[in-house]
Amino acid sequence: MAEPLSTGLKLEEENRRLKRAIEELSILNDLGRAISASLDSQEIMQTIIRRSLRALGAEQGVITLVDERASQPMKTLVRTMVSSSDHEQFQVNQALLGWMHLNKKPLLLNNPKSDERFRGVRWDESVKTLLCVPLIVKSELKGVLTIFNKRGGGGFTEEDQRLLAIIGVQSGQVIETARLYEEEKAFAKMQEEVRLASKIQSELLPKSTPTIDGYELEGKSIPAQVVGGDYYDFISIEDHRLAICLGDVTGKGLPASLLMANLQATLRGQSFLCSSPKECLVRSNKLLFHSTSPEKFATLFYAYLDSKNHQLSYSNAGHDFPFHFSDGDSPNRLKSGGLMLGAFEDFAFEEDTIPMKPGDLLVISSDGISEAMNSNLEQFGEERLQTIIRDNRSASPHEIIEKIVAAVRAHAGDQPQSDDMTLIVLKRT
Question: Which of 89, 138, 200, 421 sits in a 20 to 30 Å window from 350, CA-based?
Answer without folding.
Answer: 421
